[in-house]
From TrEMBL:
Sulfatase N-terminal domain span: 285-576
Alphabetical list of InterPro entries matching this protein: Alkaline_phosphatase_core_sf (IPR017850), OpgB/LTA_synthase_biosynth (IPR050448), Sulfatase_N (IPR000917)
SUPFAM superfamilies xref list: Alkaline phosphatase-like
Protein's recorded name: Sulfatase N-terminal domain-containing protein
PANTHER family: LIPOTEICHOIC ACID SYNTHASE, PHOSPHOGLYCEROL TRANSFERASE I
Species this chain originates from: Chitinophaga flava
One GO location term (cellular component): plasma membrane
Keywords, alphabetical: Cell membrane, Membrane, Transmembrane, Transmembrane helix
Key word Metal-binding present: no
Membrane topology: Multi-pass membrane protein
Pfam families listed in its UniProt record: Sulfatase (PF00884)
Transmembrane feature ranges: 12-37, 62-81, 93-113, 146-163, 184-206
Length: 673
């Protein structure tokens, strides 16, 4: 073994040793955190072990990221790495900076956690605010052993650099190992693959994400599973998303009145509405089915010439069609966050699911007492950090994802929708057979590039241009035959779900809510009641319908605007579940809101971003770049700005629109459990 180690070029060995030193430094501070700062109500050794395992993987990732510059320098200079004075000085300076900064940040993190109970994040920069620096410095001086602390840090770093110098000198004194091209290529390839694998950090399609540390709702366990430096960087990258407390308070009265808040209070900013239960209603199973890229316009319920979704139309005709249903933004991750939390995802750069500070929310799904909670996805929940949206907010949720199914992957998005539904139905049947009601979020994905369509039960067939009326196709908005077939395949799988529910015995005691996450990209179309392609609202106008034979009367069409924020309040009311609503969603079936319901949306038109409210009659929008506003009468000329003609209506809707926007910004950070 010793000979093998000696035969490895010394510059490669230096990279390996430096990796070990960095990793041990991080492990040291993890041990300190665990022994002196870790607090948790969870005593399960399996949970603690998992947090340690994830934390060590994060530590290894950061180690390897920091080692990359050393590795690049080593393989480029090869044996000159130890003979060049310039290289030695560059390396020594880099190592000095890395170990010093890491040590200071880890110590700062421990102090931050001891003071606030959370890992280091960019909010610490507030202590450097002008006018407060002196007071904060005095607080630190009076509260902590600053002199002894810095003396301890100095001694620690001195010992570290003594070890560093000794390691360098020892390797530099050894005879060089000269490699021919192929052995050298082998070493470089192996080193690259090992570093890349360690940084990737997962035996799955998606890389290691910080959301994996949020596998419980316990702050201590989550903190143990994180690497504070990587967590800091994750937070720092989304600092552009914030809120203005003064604007929140300014527009709070308008949104509080609209939502019918129990006890409006502009100082406390209370949004709670207490909704009593109804014990006379049966405790039906609840299945939410998210239909990937399924806008209103492409489906058969909205007069699309191609009539691509007969199964959806059959179910909508047999239940309730929500004719004017919108999502707040065009993004699958934003839809999953929005429907689950009841808040629009209005983040500017990344999605809220990728924002650590937005993942602690009081949500309605968590209040389904006595219900098993399920989330089922054919792919990996590391996608967009979506796992944390559920595990951090829903007590005891059971997640089913890639790697847990019998079926093999169909494409980048995991197993096929057909296989997902088949295996999901087995899970639903098992719960139903045990007389345990469940609430499930079933997320389909195949109506999305690469448009994978399987044969299903063997009876799904793609069509070609020869099989369809191309004149109708050109008017339908579809951009390709593949896109058309993908929607047909999704509709096929909607029918498959209902067939499985009937076969497995849970159809008659389940309420299904189907909804699109956003519209697909379409060519210009003109068959919808509104010129939504021109208004740019077509992207957020999606299909939505409820189906429950024996519990939902057929042939219902609700034209009152609805939003995916309303889904969980509606489903809770459907099954008589009492709940406290802290979100911006309302009950879709609330008859008192027929004439004053508005939904909040965002969209791009001519490359300009807008946020807006859509109601039965009016659309009011605010340009997020220019601050220009406009009011449109949807029952007259929907493309004509009538703000000057109806200033009172415009003013009222301006206040409510800004109320939605500012309250959303505030609640995303302050709706914590």
């Amino acid at each position: 073994m010793q000979n093998f180690w000696k035969n490895i070029p010394r510059y490669i060995r230096y990279v390996v040793v430096q990796t070990l030193y960095l990793f041990l430094l991080m492990v040291l501070f993890r041990v300190i955190f665990y022994l002196f700062f870790f607090k948790s109500t969870i005593t399960s050794s399996a949970v603690i072990t998992k947090a340690w395992y994830l934390g060590l993987k994060f530590d290894l990732r950061l180690t390897l990221i920091l080692v990359v510059p050393i590795a690049i320098m080593a393989v480029i200079t090869r044996n000159r790495f130890f003979t060049s004075k310039v290289i030695r000085n560059i390396n020594r300076t880099y190592v000095f900076i890395v170990f010093t900064v890491l040590t200071l940040l880890f110590i700062l993190d421990l102090g931050h956690y001891d003071y606030l109970g959370i890992r280091l994040d960019p909010s610490i920069l507030r202590f450097l605010a002008k006018g407060e620096r002196a007071d904060n410095a005095r607080m630190v001086w009076q509260s902590y052993p600053v002199v002894r602390g810095f003396l301890g840090i100095f001694v620690f770093l001195y010992l570290v650099f003594r070890v560093q110098r000794r390691t360098w000198n020892r390797l530099a004194a050894e005879p060089p190992v000269y490699l021919r091209n192929w052995p050298f290529t082998g070493y470089v390839t192996g080193l690259t693959l090992l570093i890349a694998a360690g940084i990737y950090g997962n035996f799955a399609y998606f890389p290691l994400r910080w959301s994996q540390a949020m596998f419980t709702r316990d702050n201590g366990v989550t903190s143990l599973g994180l690497n504070p430096i990587l967590y800091f960087v994750s937070n720092f990258s989304v600092q552009g998303d914030t809120y203005d407390i003064n604007l929140t308070k300014k527009y709070y009265p308008y949104i509080a009145e609209y939502l019918k808040v129990d006890k409006p209070d502009v100082e406390k900013l209370d949004y709670r509405r207490t909704v009593p239960g109804d014990s006379t209603k049966p405790k039906l199973n609840v299945i939410l089915v998210m239909l990937e890229s399924t806008g209103a316009a492409p489906t058969s319920m909205y007069n699309n010439p191609m009539q691509a979704t007969p199964n959806m139309k059959r179910l909508a005709d047999s239940g309730i069609l929500f004719k004017n249903f919108y999502v707040p933004a065009i993004s699958t991750a934003k839809t999953v966050f929005g429907v689950t939390t009841g808040l629009p995802d209005i983040t500017a750069v990344k999605t809220a699911s990728r924002h650590p500070k937005m993942l602690d929310q009081r949500i309605v799904m968590d209040q389904f007492k006595g219900y098993e909670r399920l989330y089922l996805l054919g792919g990996n929940t590391n996608w967009a950090n979506i796992r944390a949206v559920f595990t951090n907010n829903v007590e005891g949720i059971n997640i089913h994802e890639e790697g847990m199914y019998k079926s093999g992957k169909a494409d980048v998005w995991g197993i096929s929708d057909y296989d997902l539904i088949t295996e999901a139905s087995e899970i639903f049947k098992a719960s139903n057979d045990q007389k345990k009601p469940f609430v499930a979020f079933l997320q389909l994905a195949d109506n999305h590039p690469p448009y994978t369509t399987t044969s299903g039960a063997g009876d799904f067939k793609k069509v070609t241009e020869k099989d369809i009326d191309m004149e109708k196709f050109k008017k339908s908005g579809f951009v390709s035959i593949d896109q058309f077939n993908a929607l047909r395949y999704e509709d096929y799988n909607v029918g498959h779900l209902i067939d499985m529910a009937r076969k497995d015995g849970y159809l008659n005691n389940t309420v299904f809510m189907f909804f699109g996450d956003h519209n697909c990209i379409l060519n210009p179309y003109s068959f919808m009641p509104l010129p939504e392609y021109e208004l740019a609202t077509g992207g957020v106008h999606v299909t939505a319908f409820m189906y429950s034979p024996g519990h939902v009367a057929p042939q219902q069409v609700i034209n009152t605007p609805g939003s995916l924020l309303d889904i969980y309040p509606t489903m809770a009311s459907m099954v008589g579940m009492p709940y406290n609503n802290y979100t911006l969603g309302t009950n879709l079936l609330d008859s008192t809101r027929v004439n004053d319901k508005y939904v909040f949306v965002t969209y791009l038109r001519n490359q300009q971003p807008y946020y807006a409210l859509i109601g039965d009659r009016y659309l009011y929008e605010i340009n997020m770049v220019t601050a220009a506003t406009a009011l449109y009468d949807l029952q007259a000329d929907p493309t004509k700005n009538i703000q000057a003609q109806q200033p009172d209506t415009a003013k009222n809707l301006d206040n409510l629109t800004r109320g939605f926007y500012e309250s959303t910004r505030y609640l995303m950070f302050n709706n914590k459990k």
